[in-house]
Amino acid sequence: MLAAAARHGLRVTAVDPPAERAGLSVGMPLADARALCPGLTVASADPEGDAAALHRLALWCGRYSPWTAVDPTDGVALDITGCAHLFGGEAALLDNIHNRLNGFGLTVRLAAAPTLGAAWAAARHAPGPRTIVADGAVENVLAPLPLAALRMDDTVVDALAQVGLKRVCDVLDQPSAPLTARFGPLLVTRLDQATGRQAETLHGLMPPPVHEARRSFVDPIVLTADVERAVAGLADDLAARLADAGVGARRLDLRLYRIDGRVRSEVVRTSGLCRRADHIVRLFRERLDQRAEEIDTGFGIEVMTLSALAVEPFVARQNALQAGADQAALSDDIARLLDRFGNRFGFDRVVRFVPQASALPERAVRAVPVLDSPRPDDWMAHLRAAQGGRQLGRPLLMIMPPDPITTLAEVPDGPPMLFEWRRLVHRVTRADGPERLAPEWWRPRNGDGRYTRDYYRVEDSEGRRFWLYREGLYERPGDTPRWFLHGVLA
Length: 490
Fold this sequence. Notes:
By secondary structure, the chain is of the alpha+beta class. The protein has 14 helices and 19 strands. The strands form six sheets. A six-stranded antiparallel beta barrel has the order 14-15-16-17-18-19. The longest helix is centred in the middle third of the chain and has 22 residues, at about 225-245. The model has no long low-confidence stretch (mean pLDDT about 85).
C-alpha cells in the first residue's frame, strides 16, 4: 500500500488486491487503515516516479500501436484501429498485454471498446480484469456501471448521487438540457463521448510515423552484431517504401523494445532528403557505436522499428552526361557527410555559409545550421550583386580578421611594390585593381568597416596571389590609411 501526506494527515493513495479485499480503499486515513490491518506494509508515495514509469510504459506499448498516450494517473490509452489483427484479434492482443505486464510484476485491468470513454469505463469499473466491448453493445456495458465511470469529478458524482442518479443507466435516456443546466456540460459531454455520439481524439505521445519498418524476433537478440544486421534489414525495407511513395526522410527513429519493458530510442536527422539504405545504416551504426556503453539490451530485444517521422516529396534530378562531371553525385556525397557530422557532433555545431546583403566581404555571409538552409544558394548571383554587376571573384581562403601588413608603393594611391606579411617579404610583380568598397552608411562610425577600402589582387615573384586592401583614403582629411591582407587566391 502507498500513502502520501494530505491536509488532515497521511492518506492512502494506492492499494494492492489483498489490501482491497481486507477493506482498505484509496483516500482513507492511514490511521484507519492500520487499525483494520495492524500488519500493513506501507510505502511512501512517489507521484513523480510513478508518472515517469507510466510514461516509459506508454512508450513500450508502442510495440502494439503507433498511437499511445499516458492516461493519468494510472492508465495508458492505445488506439488499436487496424492493429489488433496483427496479434490474432482483440482477445489475443489483450492476453498478450496482460501476460507481459504480469511478468513485469504489474496488476493490470484491460478493456477494448469502440470508444475511448467506453474503454476507460470498462477497464476501471467492469467486473472482470479483461473486457471486450463489441460494436453496438456500448450502452449495455455502460448501463450498470457507476457514474464515476464517465470520467467526472467527485463533486459532480456526489451531486448526482444526492438526487438519486448513481449509475450510467440513470442518465442514458435523460434529456440533455436539464442535465446540463443542473450539473454542467461535462456530464453530457462525457456521456456522448463514451457512447460514440461525440468524437474524441486520443493525443498520442508523438505523431504516428508516416512510414515504418518492423522486425519481431522469435528469440530475443542480445548481440550488437545482430542488432546491426536487423538495422540493415529495416533500412532496406524503409528505403523501398520511401522510394515507392516518392518521398525522402529528414528524421528517422530507431526503437529497440526489450522483453523487460524498456524501450531504447535513437533519432537521427538529415540535412537533405534521404532514402538510401546504406546511408541510413551508416548513420545509425555510428550512433550505436558512439553510445555503445549506454545501450543495454538487457535480457534481449524482441521488437525493432525504424520510422520516418518527417518526409518530403523527393524530386529526381538528371545527372551530368559527361564522365567525371557528376555534380549531383558530389552534392549527395557532401550532404551525407554533413549528416554524419551533424548526428555525431550536433546539428547546431555544423554550419554552412549563406549569402547576406552586404558589400563588405566579412559581412556578406553568415553561418547557419545545415538544417536551416537545405537548398543551395546562388553564390554567383550574390557576387554579381555585391560587386555592381561585375564578376571580380573572391579568394578561396579568407583571413578573418584581416592581417595588417606593411607595404611600399610607387604612389600613395597605387598598388604596393612589395609587402611584408608574417615576417616574410613578398615582391609584387603583377597587380589588378582597385575595387573600391564604400562603408555602410547606416552603421555607426565607430564600428568596423567605417573607412573606404581599395582592394587589389596581386601576384608575387614566386607566383603566389593575394587579396590586399588599403583602408582609408589619402586625400580624405582625418583618414589614416592602413594596409591589410584579406585572403589568398588560388
